[in-house]
Every structure is written in C-alpha cells, then in structure tokens.
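Hi L.,

You mentioned the student needs an example of a multi-chain input paired with its predicted structure. This one should do, with 574 residues in total across all chains.
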Amino acid sequence: MIELSHLTKVYNDTAVVNDVNMEIEAGTITVIVGTSGSGKSTLLRMVNRLVEPTEGRVFLEGSDVSTMPPHELRRSIGYAIQNHGLFPHWTVARNIATVPMLLGWDRRKVDARVEELMELFQLDHGQFANRYPHELSGGQQQRVGVARAMAAKPALLLMDEPFGALDPIIRSKAQTDLKAIQRRTGTTILLVTHDMGEAVHLGDRIAVMDGGLLKQYAPAADILARPADAFVDDLIGSADRPFRYLTLGKVRAAVEPGDAEGAPLAADASLYEGLGELLWSGRDAAPVIDAAGAPVGRISLQGIAGRAARPK
Amino acid sequence: MKRDMIRTGTILRLLVFAALLAFLLAPDRFAGLLAPLTNNGAPAIYNQGTLLDLTLSHLVTVGLSTVAAAIVAIGLAIFVTRPAGAEFLALSRAIVNIGQTFPPVAVLALSVPIMGFGEGPTRMALFLYGLLPIFENTLVGLSTLPPAVVETASAMGMTGRQRLLKVELPLAMPLIIEGIRLSAVIGLATATIGSTVAAKGLGEVIVAGLLSNNLAFIVQGGVITGVLAVLISDGFEAVAHRMAKRRGATRQADPDGQQSGA
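Structure written out for the whole complex:
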C-alpha cells in the first residue's frame, strides 16, 4: 500500500535519509525506531510531503505522491505529533472537525463524526466538545490529537512520537487503546518512536534506522530474535530482550493440560504479564481461563521460560 | 477579590465615560466648574465651535489614519512573513522605522505645501507614525507562533491562505490588537498638533487657550483628549485580554482565572 523507493534527503551535504526502500502493508502498524538524528522523522514527513525528498519516490496505493497537490494529499493522510499541535483558539470539537471541514463535509455529517470519534477516544461529548485544548489534561489532549488525525477516515495515519509527552502510565494505556482502535478501523499506521519497548508493543513490523540508513525491517519477533547488526542489538538491550520477546506472545500459546492452584490468568494476557504474575505470587504454575471464564488448562514457569529463549 | 477589582474598574470607566458624554453634550452646565480658571470674564467653555463636533472630528481623524496604518502595516507584515516576501523583511523594517523616526510636526510642515491646510497633513502624519507599532507587533505575532501548531495546520491539508486566515492571524490577533491600541493612543495625542495646520480637532481648544492665556480652554481640551485616550486604550486591552484568556495564554500569569479540565 505504501512503497518507499530509494528515498533520500540531503541537508547541507549530509544525507539524513539515505536510499531507504520499504514496503508497508495496508492495515498494519509499522513502527520506525531509531535514536534522535537517525532520520526517522524526516522519513515519515516525506510521505505527506512536509519534507520533499532529494531523490526517490513515495507511492501510495500505486500513485506517486509528488504528482498530487500537497494540500489534497495531506487531507487524505492522518497526522499526529508529540505535542499534539492542537489549535489553541478552537474548541475540542472544532479541532477534531478540522479535516472534514477542509474537505467541505456537510455540517451534520461533521457533527456526527466528531461525536463518534469522541466516544471512540473516551472523551465525553457533553463535557469536552466545547472546551479549549488548554483546559484538558495531557492525556486528553493527546487523544484529541489522534482523533483529529483520524477524523476524515484516512486509510493511512502518520504518527511522530505521539506518546512522547505522556507519563508512563497514561502512555501504556494510550498505546493499548491505539492498537485496539487500529484493529477495529483497519487504518494503516506508520509510527515513529525512539522507544524499542513501544515499537515491540505496537508494531506488526519494525523498521530500525540509524544515521539515515534503514538497518533492519522485519516483524517484531524477527528483530528481537535476529538483530541485523550490533546497533539493532544495542537498541533492544540484551537484558530486556527475553522480556520484550515475551510481550509478543499470549498466555494461550503456552497453555498445557492440567490444573494449578490460585487465581487464574486470562488466556489473552501476554506471556510477559503471565510471568510477572507467577513470579510475584510465588507459584510455579497457574490455571488459565478463556474470555468466557471457562478453564482451558494451566501455564507454568517452565512453559514461559521455554518461550523466552532465543529461537533456533 | 480580583474579580471585584475588575468590576470596580468597569464601573469606574462607565462613570468616566458618562461624565465625558455629559460634558460634551451640555458643556455650558459645567461652566461654573471651570470659571475659576479664567481671567477678566473670559468664557469658561470654548465657543468657536461645539466641543462635540471637535471631539468627533478628532476621533474621525485618528480613526481613519489608524485604520489605514493597520491595513498597510498588517498587510506588509503578512507579506514579509510569507516565503515569497521574506527577503523584503529588512527593507520594510527600515521604511516603517523611518515613518516612526520622522517627527509628526515635520511631516505636517512638509506636507502642507503639497496637501494644503486642513485634515490631510494630519492624517498623513498620524498614518506614518502609526505604522511601526502595528507592523512590529504583527511581525512578532506571526513569527512566534508555536511551530507545532503551524506545522500541523499544513499537515492537516490547509493551503497557505487557509493557514494564514484560520490559524496564524487568529493566534497573532491579541498582539496585533495591542499594536493597533498603541497606534490609536499615540495618534489621539499627536492629532492635537494638527490644529497648527488648521485640522479640526481638540488641539484647536488647547491652542486657543494658549493664545488667549485661558487656562479653562487648555484644561478642557487636555482632559477630553486624555480621557478619550484612556478609554480607548482600555477598550482595546479588554478585547485583547479576552481573546488571549479564552485560549489559555494568560493561564500562567493568572492562575485563578481558569479551571483545569483534568
């Protein structure tokens, strides 16, 4: 759905993005991860032409973005950034309505869409629609920013460190919510972050960038299991690697027959959460139940440990 | 407590305005008040034209030149903050600065031979003098917008024109209004010297008082001008403050003025 072909951006004789080739599948979350100055934001901004490439092309559904008028292209692509960039002189509702209004939607359709989005992002319409951004908390502002980006139902959403300004607890919830919303809407998301944990948590595929080069582009599990080079390895962090790996798997996958004592674990929980629960409660095993509450077997420390080891 | 102070201020201003209006509509009733300032039975109230007419024509002169200065200065500031006009920034600054440096009296003197006596030279002088505050404030307003907000406006698909009209100008508006306020207040005071080249205005009353050594004339001309300046200045300030407060720009300075939504 998106194809980046030999994409290069040169500033003052330095290539901040250097010959990057990527194909991004529709309906997935792709996370570009890298340190600051790796060129990840510049890469993202070339997709909606906030930055014009020095060389190379971006294709969206097969058509070259450089042939479309920039403002029309951008209205079809959602965009959310770290400091949300909400318009301070507009109410929450007016902010969310930005792109639909630019597209000339009919008033009633706009209002209905704003209400729908506010519900999706758990912002009470009656309470918040007429508030100004400065009257909201950081987490609420961030949700309004993402709601605004998704207002015109773009097939593609670009996000530049969208959770960077949030404190850890809110950030983790915002990530989980985004993933759930993405699964529901099927929006293709291209997200930039410096946080490998966030990348593993959110990304169907992860692209690692360093010094303008695309170092590795693979599913999250492959990145963790087979880092392409020392830089990718460093970014993952050797101590964290098995735990990051466990965040990718579900308890369901490690269920074994039998029974165990104590509080049950949900089959949908991640192996990482399962491990934490077992260690903290001092048990070797715990019963597992499905979403309906029916027992499906048990999970053991041994079983989890087997899945944290480097795949052969 | 703060709110009470604001309310007291508003009431005070309304009283002052009412007093001014009463004086302009029926100045003779106040003759007794000003009579002690006169000598040898001279008139206490200016009698070569009604004070109301002079005040209105003073305001029209200031209004017209401020509006003209605002249109030109804001237009110029918009132009030099666009990519196409960026290279003219230094030049426009220099030109606008000359307008401010050149003393209004000199502008009057120089423009009389060209424009003749009357309101024309005064309006020209006020216009030139009023450009700088509006230009500089608009420039600051447009060039210090939060970068994230301006970039998002483009990223949402606004054209350059939409971004200017929907985002940049509204956000810069409190500063622009502050510039217009400065120009209007400076203009209001400066317009009094227009009487030296026969412009109709409150300067006429003051000049007549100076020539005939009539303190009552000087006081009424001066006080009307001063009160007008204060009221107009306050009016602009109130508008700018409301705009800034709504979007939370004064939140830090005014912690009890806003409620947090979290």
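You could point out the following to them. Chain A is about 40% helix and 25% strand. The CA atoms of residues 5 and 21 of chain A lie 5 Å apart.

Best wishes,
N.
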